[in-house]
Amino acid sequence: MNGFRLLRLFVPLFVVALPVFAQVGPTGVVVAANPSSTPVFNIRAFGAAGDRQTLDTAAIQRAIDACAAQGGGTVYFPTGGFLSGTIFLRSNVTLHLSAGAVLLGSTRIDDYPIKHLIYAKDVANIAIEGRGAIDGQGDAFFDSEMKPLPRPSPLIELWDSRGIAIDNITVRNAPAWTIHPKNCDDVKIRGVSLLNNLRAINSDGIGIDSSRNVIVSDCHIEAGDDCIVLKTTKRGDGPVQPTENVVVTNCVLVSAATALKLGTESHADFRHILFSNCVIRNSRTGIALLAKDGGVMEDVRFSNIVMTTAPKWGQGFEWPIVVDIEKRTAESRLSGMRDVAFSDLTIYSKGRVMASGLPESVIEGLSFRNVTFRVGGYETIKTAKKMRGGSKTVADGTPDYGPTPSAFIFAHIRGLTLDGVSLRWPEADPANPAPPRHAFYGDRLEQVAMTGFRGTASLPATRAVVIENSKDVDP
Questions:
Q1: Tens place of pLDDT for every residue, the chain, 475 residues?
Q2: Which residue(s) pair with 421 in the sheet?
Q3: CA–CA separation, 260 and 412 (whole Å)
Q4: Cα separation of 42 and 44, whole Å?
């Protein structure tokens, strides 16, 4: 009797815990017993080998097309290594990479008719998800000196689409740009581990281009170029759209170039953008706003960020924060910048913080609040030029404050606020005496408010604060 009673006790629990049973239909569709469940299309049922050697492009595409033909569902990648060239994602289709599944980009450039691994255009309600991985096998597209060969880029290219979700996957070894939404709306990229070769030039992580209503959160990104970069490029036909309504939060970033960046491509405006709760490690530049092509950057905020900088590939200068307006060429339209705020930042760097507008386009409304800057050493800056973010051209006569011997450098700004900013130089070392450095240098400033600025010069005989050609400075 006791055994029978125990059996009756456990049976209901066992039934509740049972998974939903499914069967493979004649078309390779995994049909769930629950009629309300989304149909699942297993790519093996469409001929995918998953042996890391057989090119599975056609089989994967058949699964995607079959899924789309039935109104949508999930294309399922089971455990295995699935080698592929370009695949085209359709509306209402989710790619689900199970744990142990790897979508491998082919190492043959001829397998990419449009130079992308995953491509979508004019679609809606798409997703890439799961505990599996996408591996671009990027090292195959570089020679022995890490110079790039013809390569697919971006790895994941999304155009003119809406309702995009990329969740919890690992993307690694992209040959160049990795994830690039262009002219997209309602984009969510969450929980992604994006790990590229730090020596791979142009291997940017996430490039948000002329897109709106974008959330990037809880990501770990290591990139041989910028980690998260917002752009407004001239790619494609028609007028360039703005990048707007963007939130980036809770990310850990390592970049050979810039961890968080706006620009340099800035052919349309950037507005209503928030970056918060990020850790930046061993990056040449922590944060950069570089306006060069006529767009206006406005209402941009950075808060709760800790950064440590390091020279790119062991060479050159560190620039923890750069805010800059310049014209890419003499013919470029004049950019603008206003209402940019930094708060609750801690900086560890040998470099310097620089913000500079132009005489004909000053930065309007720039603030730094509760910022701690711990200088870790001294660079030789006599020949330094300002960081231009990969741009190789600049209009003649553009001011360059790169050699300025100061921890903070500000020029051509109207409405500059420093509140609760502190600066710490390295401990004195008699064997390596400090060079003369100001704490603050300003040129052609208007309406400056400095409250609780705590910082000395690097040497007692050097002036801590130098302000020239400026007005309305308080104190």
A1: 444 333 333 333 222 222 333 444 544 555 443 445 789 999 999 999 999 999 999 999 999 999 999 999 999 999 999 999 999 999 999 999 999 999 999 999 999 999 999 999 999 999 999 999 999 999 999 999 999 999 999 999 999 999 999 999 999 999 999 999 999 999 999 999 999 999 999 999 999 999 999 999 999 999 999 999 999 999 988 999 999 999 999 999 999 999 999 999 999 999 999 999 999 999 999 999 999 999 999 999 999 999 999 999 989 999 999 999 999 999 999 999 999 999 999 999 999 999 999 999 999 999 999 999 999 999 999 989 988 877 777 877 788 999 999 999 999 999 999 999 999 999 988 888 999 999 999 999 999 999 989 999 999 999 999 999 999 998 7
A2: 371
A3: 23
A4: 5
* Bridge partners for 290 per DSSP: 324
Residue with tokens 């060479």: 315
Number of C-beta neighbours around residue 196 at 10 A: 30
DSSP states of 415-448 = EEEEEEEEEEPPPP-TTSPPPP-EEEEEEEEEEE
The residue extents of the domains of the chain are 27-474
Main-chain dihedrals φ then ψ at residue 64, nearest 5 degrees:
-65, -45
Longest dimension (CA), the chain: 97
- Return the sign of the alpha-carbon dihedral for residues 377, 378, 379, 380: negative
Are 289 and 300 in contact by the 8 Å Cβ rule? The answer is yes
Q: 338-373 in b/e burial notation, b at 16+ Cβ within 10 A?
A: bbbbbbbbebbbbbbbbbbbbeebbbbbbbbbbbbb
**CA distances to 126, 180, 242, 279, 322 from 206, in Å:** 17, 6, 17, 16, 20
Could you tell me the CATH superfamily of domain 27-474?
A: Single-stranded right-handed beta-helix, Pectin lyase-like (2.160.20.10)
Q: What are phi and psi of 378, to 5 degrees?
A: -130, 125
User: Model pTM greater than 0.90?
Assistant: yes
